[in-house]
Design brief:
This protein has 110 residues and is an all-alpha fold. It has one domain. It has 4 helices and no strands. The longest helix has 31 residues.
Length: 110
């Protein structure tokens, strides 16, 4: 399935590239701040709020979250392509992997 490799490559490169750009911009803005580094851990909502308030740590954290989410996007793209190609064994494997990841995320939240 040559289309699978092409789409997965685009997803992985796009996610990595966008993540890298966000983190580099965040680091440059953080280096330019006169008050220096603030040791803050931000979740997704807090990262967007920090970006809106001009805090570059929000960009860095958003870049890290995007980097972490990139493999999940890869699984979703593969699942969609397997569904379209009616590759039911691979659909089942993709769904199983997705279930494990979602379960881990939900267990971490609670």
């Amino acid at each position: 399935m040559p289309a699978l490799n092409r789409y997965i490559r685009l997803v992985l490169l796009g996610g990595m590239g966008a993540s890298l750009v966000l983190m580099i911009i965040g680091l440059m803005l953080l280096a330019a701040r006169p008050d220096g580094w603030q040791d803050v851990t931000l979740g997704p909502v807090e990262a967007f709020n920090a970006i809106a308030q001009g805090n570059p740590v929000g960009l860095i954290d958003l870049g890290l979250m995007l980097l972490i989410a990139t493999p999940l996007a890869r699984i979703l793209v593969a699942l969609g392509l397997f569904l379209r190609g009616r590759e039911w064994k691979f659909v089942a494997v993709s769904l199983a992997i997705l279930l494990v990841i979602v379960s881990a995320i939900l267990l971490k939240i609670h």
